[in-house]
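Write out the bound-state structure for 6-O-phosphono-beta-D-glucopyranose.
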Amino acid sequence: MALTDFDLVLFGGGGDLSMRKLIPAMYARDRAGDLPATAQIICIGRQNWNDAEFVQALNENARQHINEKVFAQASWDKFCARVRYVSLDATDAATYQPLNDVLRSDTNITRVFYLATPPTLFARICHNLSARGLATEHSRVVLEKPLGRDLASAKEINLEVGQVFKESQIFRIDHYLGKEAVQNLLALRFGNVLFEPLWRREWISDVQITIAEEIGVGNRMGYYETSGALRDMLQNHLLQLLCIVAMEPPLSVSADAVRDEKLKVLRSLKPFTPTTLARNIVRGQYRAGHVEGKAVPAYRQEKNANPESNTETFVAVKAEIDTWRWAGVPFYLRTGKRMADQLAEIVVRFKAIPHSIFTQSNSSFQPNCLVIRLQPDDGLQLNLMAKTPGDGMRLKPVELELDFAETFKAPRMDAYERLLLDVLRGQLTLFMRSDELEAAWEWVEPVLRYWEHEGNEPMPYTSGTWGPAAASALIGRDGLQWREEA
Ligand code: BG6
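---
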Protein backbone atom coordinates (compact mmCIF):
# COMPACT_ATOMS: atom_id res chain seq x y z
CA MET A 1 0.00 0.00 0.00
CA ALA A 2 1.49 3.34 -1.07
CA LEU A 3 2.12 5.92 1.61
CA THR A 4 0.31 9.20 1.55
CA ASP A 5 2.34 12.35 2.01
CA PHE A 6 3.56 12.90 5.57
CA ASP A 7 5.40 15.09 8.04
CA LEU A 8 7.32 12.88 10.46
CA VAL A 9 8.52 14.79 13.52
CA LEU A 10 11.29 13.13 15.52
CA PHE A 11 11.64 14.45 19.07
CA GLY A 12 15.12 13.37 20.12
CA GLY A 13 15.99 13.67 16.42
CA GLY A 14 19.69 14.15 17.11
CA GLY A 15 19.82 11.36 19.70
CA ASP A 16 21.26 7.89 19.65
CA LEU A 17 18.13 6.00 18.51
CA SER A 18 17.47 8.45 15.74
CA MET A 19 21.02 8.21 14.41
CA ARG A 20 21.37 4.45 14.77
CA LYS A 21 17.91 3.28 13.75
CA LEU A 22 15.29 5.82 12.73
CA ILE A 23 17.21 7.85 10.16
CA PRO A 24 18.81 4.74 8.56
CA ALA A 25 15.36 3.09 8.44
CA MET A 26 13.75 6.08 6.76
CA TYR A 27 16.64 6.35 4.33
CA ALA A 28 16.31 2.67 3.39
CA ARG A 29 12.59 3.14 2.67
CA ASP A 30 13.32 6.27 0.68
CA ARG A 31 15.93 4.44 -1.34
CA ALA A 32 13.39 1.66 -1.98
CA GLY A 33 11.03 4.29 -3.40
CA ASP A 34 8.41 4.12 -0.62
CA LEU A 35 8.43 7.77 0.45
CA PRO A 36 6.26 10.33 -1.34
CA ALA A 37 8.33 13.02 -3.06
CA THR A 38 7.29 15.83 -0.73
CA ALA A 39 7.34 13.92 2.58
CA GLN A 40 9.34 15.70 5.30
CA ILE A 41 11.34 14.36 8.22
CA ILE A 42 11.58 17.02 10.88
CA CYS A 43 14.19 16.40 13.56
CA ILE A 44 13.84 18.22 16.84
CA GLY A 45 16.70 18.95 19.19
CA ARG A 46 18.00 21.59 21.54
CA GLN A 47 21.19 22.35 19.65
CA ASN A 48 21.09 25.55 17.73
CA TRP A 49 21.76 24.01 14.31
CA ASN A 50 20.48 24.95 10.89
CA ASP A 51 19.47 22.29 8.33
CA ALA A 52 22.96 22.14 6.79
CA GLU A 53 24.64 21.67 10.17
CA PHE A 54 22.22 18.91 11.04
CA VAL A 55 22.92 17.15 7.75
CA GLN A 56 26.57 17.27 8.74
CA ALA A 57 25.63 15.59 12.04
CA LEU A 58 23.75 12.94 10.03
CA ASN A 59 26.86 12.34 7.94
CA GLU A 60 28.93 11.94 11.06
CA ASN A 61 26.56 9.86 13.15
CA ALA A 62 23.82 8.22 11.08
CA ARG A 63 25.61 7.45 7.81
CA GLN A 64 27.78 4.74 9.45
CA HIS A 65 24.68 2.80 10.48
CA ILE A 66 23.39 2.45 6.94
CA ASN A 67 23.94 -0.86 5.29
CA GLU A 68 26.56 -0.38 2.56
CA LYS A 69 24.51 -2.55 0.23
CA VAL A 70 21.69 -0.03 0.16
CA PHE A 71 23.75 3.16 0.35
CA ALA A 72 24.21 5.42 -2.67
CA GLN A 73 25.44 8.99 -2.40
CA ALA A 74 22.86 10.46 -4.77
CA SER A 75 19.91 8.95 -2.92
CA TRP A 76 21.44 9.94 0.44
CA ASP A 77 21.72 13.55 -0.73
CA LYS A 78 18.12 13.41 -1.93
CA PHE A 79 17.06 11.98 1.43
CA CYS A 80 18.97 14.63 3.40
CA ALA A 81 17.17 17.30 1.40
CA ARG A 82 13.87 16.20 2.94
CA VAL A 83 15.26 16.38 6.48
CA ARG A 84 14.58 19.61 8.35
CA TYR A 85 16.05 20.49 11.73
CA VAL A 86 14.08 22.48 14.28
CA SER A 87 15.67 23.70 17.47
CA LEU A 88 13.33 24.01 20.42
CA ASP A 89 12.99 23.16 24.08
CA ALA A 90 10.54 20.27 24.12
CA THR A 91 9.48 21.13 27.66
CA ASP A 92 8.49 24.70 26.78
CA ALA A 93 5.47 25.26 24.51
CA ALA A 94 6.52 28.87 24.01
CA THR A 95 9.48 27.66 21.92
CA TYR A 96 7.35 25.55 19.51
CA GLN A 97 6.75 28.25 16.88
CA PRO A 98 9.50 27.03 14.50
CA LEU A 99 7.78 23.65 14.47
CA ASN A 100 4.48 25.32 13.54
CA ASP A 101 6.32 26.98 10.69
CA VAL A 102 7.57 23.80 9.05
CA LEU A 103 4.51 21.60 9.57
CA ARG A 104 2.05 21.65 6.71
CA SER A 105 -1.56 22.32 7.64
CA ASP A 106 -3.25 20.24 4.90
CA THR A 107 -5.18 17.54 6.81
CA ASN A 108 -4.54 15.05 3.98
CA ILE A 109 -0.91 15.03 5.04
CA THR A 110 -0.26 12.43 7.72
CA ARG A 111 1.35 14.00 10.76
CA VAL A 112 3.36 11.78 13.08
CA PHE A 113 5.14 12.80 16.28
CA TYR A 114 7.76 10.23 17.25
CA LEU A 115 8.89 10.69 20.85
CA ALA A 116 12.37 9.18 21.05
CA THR A 117 12.91 10.92 24.39
CA PRO A 118 12.98 9.83 28.02
CA PRO A 119 9.46 8.81 29.08
CA THR A 120 9.39 11.59 31.68
CA LEU A 121 8.94 14.00 28.75
CA PHE A 122 6.07 12.19 27.00
CA ALA A 123 3.24 13.90 28.87
CA ARG A 124 4.81 17.33 28.65
CA ILE A 125 5.46 17.10 24.90
CA CYS A 126 1.92 15.86 24.19
CA HIS A 127 0.41 18.69 26.21
CA ASN A 128 2.68 21.21 24.51
CA LEU A 129 1.68 19.91 21.09
CA SER A 130 -1.93 20.22 22.11
CA ALA A 131 -1.47 23.72 23.54
CA ARG A 132 0.06 24.86 20.27
CA GLY A 133 -2.74 23.25 18.26
CA LEU A 134 -0.29 20.89 16.57
CA ALA A 135 -1.82 17.63 17.78
CA THR A 136 -4.78 17.36 15.46
CA GLU A 137 -7.26 14.52 15.29
CA HIS A 138 -5.45 13.31 12.17
CA SER A 139 -2.05 13.14 13.81
CA ARG A 140 -0.39 10.14 15.46
CA VAL A 141 2.09 9.80 18.26
CA VAL A 142 4.75 7.12 18.63
CA LEU A 143 6.06 6.35 22.11
CA GLU A 144 9.48 4.77 22.30
CA LYS A 145 10.44 2.54 25.18
CA PRO A 146 10.98 2.61 28.11
CA LEU A 147 7.25 3.14 28.59
CA GLY A 148 7.54 4.00 32.25
CA ARG A 149 9.59 2.35 34.96
CA ASP A 150 6.79 0.62 36.85
CA LEU A 151 3.03 0.20 36.78
CA ALA A 152 2.26 3.59 38.29
CA SER A 153 4.43 5.54 35.85
CA ALA A 154 3.10 3.53 32.87
CA LYS A 155 -0.47 4.33 33.97
CA GLU A 156 0.46 7.96 34.32
CA ILE A 157 1.86 8.04 30.78
CA ASN A 158 -1.25 6.34 29.40
CA LEU A 159 -3.46 8.79 31.22
CA GLU A 160 -1.59 11.94 30.21
CA VAL A 161 -0.97 10.98 26.59
CA GLY A 162 -4.60 9.80 26.45
CA GLN A 163 -5.76 13.32 27.30
CA VAL A 164 -4.29 14.52 24.01
CA PHE A 165 -4.46 11.52 21.67
CA LYS A 166 -7.10 8.81 21.24
CA GLU A 167 -5.93 5.23 21.70
CA SER A 168 -6.19 4.71 17.92
CA GLN A 169 -3.63 7.51 17.44
CA ILE A 170 -1.07 6.10 19.90
CA PHE A 171 1.67 3.77 18.68
CA ARG A 172 3.65 2.20 21.56
CA ILE A 173 6.63 0.69 19.89
CA ASP A 174 8.38 -2.57 20.76
CA HIS A 175 10.86 -3.13 17.97
CA TYR A 176 10.94 -6.89 18.61
CA LEU A 177 7.45 -7.11 17.13
CA GLY A 178 8.84 -5.69 13.89
CA LYS A 179 11.39 -8.45 13.49
CA GLU A 180 10.90 -10.73 10.51
CA ALA A 181 11.08 -13.92 12.55
CA VAL A 182 8.33 -12.80 14.92
CA GLN A 183 5.98 -12.27 12.03
CA ASN A 184 7.06 -15.59 10.62
CA LEU A 185 6.03 -17.18 13.87
CA LEU A 186 2.51 -15.90 13.23
CA ALA A 187 2.71 -17.32 9.71
CA LEU A 188 4.00 -20.64 11.02
CA ARG A 189 1.33 -20.97 13.68
CA PHE A 190 -1.68 -19.71 11.76
CA GLY A 191 -0.75 -20.38 8.13
CA ASN A 192 -0.18 -24.12 8.61
CA VAL A 193 -2.18 -26.92 10.21
CA LEU A 194 0.88 -28.83 11.26
CA PHE A 195 1.74 -27.17 14.54
CA GLU A 196 -1.52 -25.88 15.94
CA PRO A 197 -2.86 -29.28 17.16
CA LEU A 198 0.44 -29.85 18.96
CA TRP A 199 0.74 -26.32 20.33
CA ARG A 200 -0.50 -27.12 23.82
CA ARG A 201 0.30 -28.68 27.14
CA GLU A 202 -0.39 -32.23 25.94
CA TRP A 203 2.55 -32.09 23.50
CA ILE A 204 4.82 -29.26 24.58
CA SER A 205 7.16 -29.81 27.49
CA ASP A 206 8.60 -26.29 27.82
CA VAL A 207 9.40 -23.10 25.99
CA GLN A 208 12.65 -21.15 26.26
CA ILE A 209 12.99 -17.60 25.05
CA THR A 210 16.47 -16.12 25.03
CA ILE A 211 17.80 -12.74 23.99
CA ALA A 212 21.53 -12.83 24.59
CA GLU A 213 23.80 -9.96 23.69
CA GLU A 214 27.57 -9.78 23.48
CA ILE A 215 27.62 -6.01 23.85
CA GLY A 216 27.84 -4.33 27.25
CA VAL A 217 26.06 -1.11 28.19
CA GLY A 218 28.35 0.95 25.96
CA ASN A 219 27.69 4.66 26.31
CA ARG A 220 24.15 4.21 27.68
CA MET A 221 25.13 3.98 31.34
CA GLY A 222 22.98 6.96 32.34
CA TYR A 223 19.85 5.22 31.09
CA TYR A 224 20.80 1.65 31.89
CA GLU A 225 21.68 2.28 35.51
CA THR A 226 18.10 3.40 36.15
CA SER A 227 16.67 0.54 34.15
CA GLY A 228 18.42 -2.85 34.27
CA ALA A 229 17.64 -5.96 32.26
CA LEU A 230 14.17 -6.53 33.69
CA ARG A 231 12.86 -3.14 32.62
CA ASP A 232 15.01 -2.87 29.51
CA MET A 233 14.27 -6.26 27.95
CA LEU A 234 12.02 -8.58 29.96
CA GLN A 235 8.98 -6.41 30.67
CA ASN A 236 8.71 -5.59 26.98
CA HIS A 237 10.59 -7.64 24.37
CA LEU A 238 10.59 -11.00 26.13
CA LEU A 239 6.97 -10.75 27.25
CA GLN A 240 5.88 -9.70 23.77
CA LEU A 241 7.59 -12.75 22.30
CA LEU A 242 5.93 -14.93 24.92
CA CYS A 243 2.56 -13.49 23.90
CA ILE A 244 3.08 -14.34 20.24
CA VAL A 245 4.06 -17.90 21.13
CA ALA A 246 1.23 -18.46 23.59
CA MET A 247 -1.76 -16.53 22.29
CA GLU A 248 -4.89 -18.19 20.96
CA PRO A 249 -5.59 -17.83 17.23
CA PRO A 250 -6.84 -14.25 16.77
CA LEU A 251 -9.96 -13.67 14.66
CA SER A 252 -7.82 -11.84 12.10
CA VAL A 253 -4.60 -9.86 12.00
CA SER A 254 -6.47 -6.65 12.70
CA ALA A 255 -4.98 -4.61 15.52
CA ASP A 256 -7.53 -5.29 18.22
CA ALA A 257 -8.02 -8.94 17.34
CA VAL A 258 -4.31 -9.60 17.88
CA ARG A 259 -3.98 -7.32 20.88
CA ASP A 260 -7.01 -8.85 22.59
CA GLU A 261 -5.33 -12.27 22.43
CA LYS A 262 -1.97 -10.96 23.63
CA LEU A 263 -3.68 -9.24 26.52
CA LYS A 264 -5.32 -12.51 27.59
CA VAL A 265 -1.89 -14.13 27.76
CA LEU A 266 -0.47 -11.33 29.90
CA ARG A 267 -3.44 -11.51 32.22
CA SER A 268 -3.06 -15.29 32.53
CA LEU A 269 0.55 -15.14 33.69
CA LYS A 270 0.65 -16.77 37.08
CA PRO A 271 1.27 -14.00 39.63
CA PHE A 272 4.40 -14.24 41.71
CA THR A 273 4.19 -15.43 45.29
CA PRO A 274 6.85 -14.97 47.99
CA THR A 275 8.07 -18.48 47.13
CA THR A 276 8.28 -18.00 43.37
CA LEU A 277 9.88 -14.58 43.82
CA ALA A 278 12.66 -16.27 45.73
CA ARG A 279 12.92 -19.35 43.52
CA ASN A 280 11.93 -18.50 39.97
CA ILE A 281 14.03 -15.46 39.19
CA VAL A 282 17.74 -15.05 38.75
CA ARG A 283 19.32 -11.67 38.66
CA GLY A 284 22.91 -11.22 37.47
CA GLN A 285 25.53 -8.62 36.73
CA TYR A 286 28.57 -9.10 34.50
CA ARG A 287 32.09 -9.13 35.79
CA ALA A 288 35.23 -8.70 33.68
CA GLY A 289 35.88 -11.43 31.15
CA HIS A 290 36.42 -12.09 27.46
CA VAL A 291 33.94 -11.65 24.65
CA GLU A 292 35.00 -12.81 21.19
CA GLY A 293 38.55 -13.10 22.49
CA LYS A 294 38.70 -9.50 23.74
CA ALA A 295 39.06 -8.55 27.39
CA VAL A 296 36.08 -6.52 28.61
CA PRO A 297 35.55 -4.72 31.94
CA ALA A 298 33.02 -5.48 34.64
CA TYR A 299 29.73 -3.54 34.60
CA ARG A 300 30.84 -1.69 37.70
CA GLN A 301 33.99 -0.58 35.90
CA GLU A 302 32.34 0.64 32.70
CA LYS A 303 32.55 4.34 31.83
CA ASN A 304 30.43 6.46 34.23
CA ALA A 305 29.48 3.39 36.27
CA ASN A 306 28.62 3.41 39.92
CA PRO A 307 31.30 1.08 41.39
CA GLU A 308 28.72 -0.27 43.83
CA SER A 309 25.88 -0.59 41.37
CA ASN A 310 23.33 -3.34 41.94
CA THR A 311 21.69 -2.92 38.55
CA GLU A 312 21.12 -6.27 36.85
CA THR A 313 22.51 -6.91 33.38
CA PHE A 314 21.02 -10.40 33.27
CA VAL A 315 17.69 -11.81 34.26
CA ALA A 316 16.15 -15.26 33.94
CA VAL A 317 12.58 -16.07 34.93
CA LYS A 318 10.40 -19.14 35.00
CA ALA A 319 6.89 -18.09 34.03
CA GLU A 320 3.67 -20.06 33.85
CA ILE A 321 0.45 -19.35 32.03
CA ASP A 322 -2.72 -20.35 33.81
CA THR A 323 -4.91 -21.44 30.91
CA TRP A 324 -6.28 -24.74 29.63
CA ARG A 325 -3.77 -24.67 26.80
CA TRP A 326 -0.68 -23.97 28.86
CA ALA A 327 -1.26 -25.05 32.47
CA GLY A 328 1.89 -26.69 33.78
CA VAL A 329 4.13 -25.76 30.83
CA PRO A 330 7.08 -23.69 32.04
CA PHE A 331 8.19 -20.72 29.95
CA TYR A 332 11.80 -19.85 30.72
CA LEU A 333 12.80 -16.34 29.74
CA ARG A 334 16.31 -14.96 29.90
CA THR A 335 18.28 -12.04 28.64
CA GLY A 336 21.68 -10.61 29.37
CA LYS A 337 24.47 -8.42 28.19
CA ARG A 338 28.07 -9.61 27.70
CA MET A 339 26.96 -13.16 27.16
CA ALA A 340 28.69 -15.98 25.29
CA ASP A 341 26.97 -15.26 21.98
CA GLN A 342 24.78 -12.76 20.18
CA LEU A 343 21.56 -14.64 19.81
CA ALA A 344 17.80 -14.33 20.07
CA GLU A 345 15.67 -17.43 19.78
CA ILE A 346 12.49 -19.13 20.85
CA VAL A 347 12.81 -22.83 21.56
CA VAL A 348 9.64 -24.92 21.72
CA ARG A 349 10.43 -28.36 23.07
CA PHE A 350 7.97 -31.16 22.55
CA LYS A 351 7.40 -34.10 24.86
CA ALA A 352 9.32 -37.32 24.59
CA ILE A 353 7.80 -40.21 22.64
CA PRO A 354 5.57 -42.28 24.91
CA HIS A 355 7.16 -45.60 24.05
CA SER A 356 10.01 -46.89 21.91
CA ILE A 357 9.29 -49.68 19.45
CA PHE A 358 12.98 -49.86 18.62
CA THR A 359 15.75 -51.58 20.48
CA GLN A 360 17.03 -48.16 21.48
CA SER A 361 15.76 -47.02 24.84
CA ASN A 362 13.32 -44.13 25.15
CA SER A 363 15.98 -41.97 26.67
CA SER A 364 18.13 -42.10 23.54
CA PHE A 365 15.38 -40.31 21.62
CA GLN A 366 15.88 -36.59 21.62
CA PRO A 367 12.44 -34.96 21.90
CA ASN A 368 11.40 -32.90 18.88
CA CYS A 369 12.24 -29.28 19.15
CA LEU A 370 11.34 -26.24 17.09
CA VAL A 371 13.74 -23.32 17.16
CA ILE A 372 12.61 -19.96 15.86
CA ARG A 373 15.73 -17.88 15.37
CA LEU A 374 15.42 -14.11 15.43
CA GLN A 375 19.09 -13.24 15.56
CA PRO A 376 21.79 -13.13 14.23
CA ASP A 377 19.92 -14.40 11.16
CA ASP A 378 16.28 -15.39 10.96
CA GLY A 379 15.27 -18.93 10.41
CA LEU A 380 13.58 -22.05 11.66
CA GLN A 381 15.03 -25.32 12.77
CA LEU A 382 13.05 -28.45 13.45
CA ASN A 383 14.82 -31.27 15.25
CA LEU A 384 13.59 -34.74 14.39
CA MET A 385 14.79 -38.30 14.84
CA ALA A 386 15.81 -40.17 11.67
CA LYS A 387 17.30 -43.51 10.81
CA THR A 388 21.03 -43.57 10.11
CA PRO A 389 21.78 -45.10 6.69
CA GLY A 390 22.86 -48.72 6.38
CA ASP A 391 22.14 -51.94 8.07
CA GLY A 392 20.25 -52.09 11.33
CA MET A 393 17.85 -49.61 12.82
CA ARG A 394 19.68 -46.84 14.65
CA LEU A 395 17.97 -43.51 15.01
CA LYS A 396 19.72 -40.24 15.53
CA PRO A 397 18.75 -36.56 15.80
CA VAL A 398 18.69 -34.58 12.55
CA GLU A 399 17.81 -30.98 11.79
CA LEU A 400 15.46 -29.54 9.21
CA GLU A 401 16.73 -26.06 8.61
CA LEU A 402 14.97 -23.12 6.98
CA ASP A 403 17.05 -20.04 6.43
CA PHE A 404 14.74 -17.21 5.42
CA ALA A 405 17.49 -15.17 3.75
CA GLU A 406 18.31 -18.19 1.56
CA THR A 407 14.69 -19.10 0.84
CA PHE A 408 13.50 -15.61 0.05
CA LYS A 409 16.25 -13.75 -1.70
CA ALA A 410 14.49 -10.43 -1.02
CA PRO A 411 16.54 -8.02 1.10
CA ARG A 412 15.71 -7.98 4.80
CA MET A 413 13.93 -5.05 6.32
CA ASP A 414 15.06 -3.76 9.67
CA ALA A 415 12.37 -3.91 12.36
CA TYR A 416 12.25 -0.10 12.49
CA GLU A 417 11.67 0.14 8.75
CA ARG A 418 8.60 -2.06 8.99
CA LEU A 419 7.28 -0.38 12.11
CA LEU A 420 7.75 3.13 10.74
CA LEU A 421 5.89 2.13 7.58
CA ASP A 422 3.09 0.75 9.77
CA VAL A 423 2.90 4.02 11.72
CA LEU A 424 2.75 6.02 8.51
CA ARG A 425 -0.02 3.73 7.22
CA GLY A 426 -1.90 3.84 10.54
CA GLN A 427 -1.58 0.07 11.06
CA LEU A 428 -1.61 -0.67 14.82
CA THR A 429 -1.34 -4.47 14.94
CA LEU A 430 2.35 -4.53 15.90
CA PHE A 431 2.05 -1.86 18.60
CA MET A 432 1.06 -2.28 22.23
CA ARG A 433 -2.28 -1.13 23.50
CA SER A 434 -2.49 0.69 26.85
CA ASP A 435 -4.07 -2.28 28.64
CA GLU A 436 -1.35 -4.63 27.34
CA LEU A 437 1.36 -2.31 28.59
CA GLU A 438 -0.23 -2.10 32.02
CA ALA A 439 -0.77 -5.87 32.23
CA ALA A 440 2.92 -6.46 31.47
CA TRP A 441 4.00 -4.01 34.18
CA GLU A 442 1.52 -5.48 36.60
CA TRP A 443 3.12 -8.89 36.26
CA VAL A 444 6.70 -7.67 36.80
CA GLU A 445 5.87 -5.14 39.49
CA PRO A 446 6.23 -7.61 42.43
CA VAL A 447 9.71 -8.48 41.20
CA LEU A 448 10.75 -4.83 41.24
CA ARG A 449 9.38 -4.41 44.74
CA TYR A 450 10.98 -7.62 45.95
CA TRP A 451 14.41 -6.55 44.70
CA GLU A 452 13.93 -3.12 46.19
CA HIS A 453 12.96 -4.39 49.62
CA GLU A 454 15.12 -7.46 49.88
CA GLY A 455 18.13 -5.54 48.57
CA ASN A 456 18.61 -8.64 46.47
CA GLU A 457 22.13 -8.24 45.02
CA PRO A 458 22.63 -9.51 41.48
CA MET A 459 24.75 -12.61 41.15
CA PRO A 460 28.04 -12.10 39.39
CA TYR A 461 28.77 -13.82 36.06
CA THR A 462 31.88 -13.68 33.97
CA SER A 463 31.52 -11.75 30.73
CA GLY A 464 31.42 -14.12 27.77
CA THR A 465 29.43 -16.84 29.57
CA TRP A 466 25.74 -17.78 29.65
CA GLY A 467 25.07 -15.92 32.91
CA PRO A 468 25.18 -16.91 36.58
CA ALA A 469 25.25 -20.59 37.46
CA ALA A 470 21.91 -20.03 39.22
CA ALA A 471 20.28 -19.60 35.79
CA SER A 472 21.28 -23.16 34.87
CA ALA A 473 20.05 -24.31 38.28
CA LEU A 474 16.70 -22.58 37.73
CA ILE A 475 15.91 -24.74 34.72
CA GLY A 476 17.94 -27.68 36.00
CA ARG A 477 15.58 -28.07 38.96
CA ASP A 478 12.90 -29.07 36.45
CA GLY A 479 15.25 -31.64 34.92
CA LEU A 480 15.93 -29.40 31.88
CA GLN A 481 18.78 -27.44 30.34
CA TRP A 482 19.07 -24.27 28.32
CA ARG A 483 19.49 -25.27 24.69
CA GLU A 484 23.07 -23.96 24.41
CA GLU A 485 24.08 -25.91 27.48
CA ALA A 486 22.45 -29.19 26.46
C1 BG6 B 1 16.72 -2.27 23.23
C2 BG6 B 1 17.44 -2.23 24.56
O1 BG6 B 1 15.34 -2.13 23.41
O2 BG6 B 1 16.98 -3.50 22.59
C3 BG6 B 1 18.92 -2.47 24.38
O3 BG6 B 1 17.22 -0.98 25.17
C4 BG6 B 1 19.18 -3.73 23.58
O4 BG6 B 1 19.58 -2.55 25.63
C5 BG6 B 1 18.34 -3.73 22.30
O5 BG6 B 1 20.55 -3.78 23.28
C6 BG6 B 1 18.45 -5.07 21.60
O6 BG6 B 1 17.81 -4.98 20.37
P1 BG6 B 1 18.29 -5.87 19.16
O7 BG6 B 1 17.30 -5.62 18.08
O8 BG6 B 1 19.67 -5.40 18.82
O9 BG6 B 1 18.29 -7.28 19.66
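---
The chain has a mean pLDDT of 95.
The longest strand covers residues 204-212.
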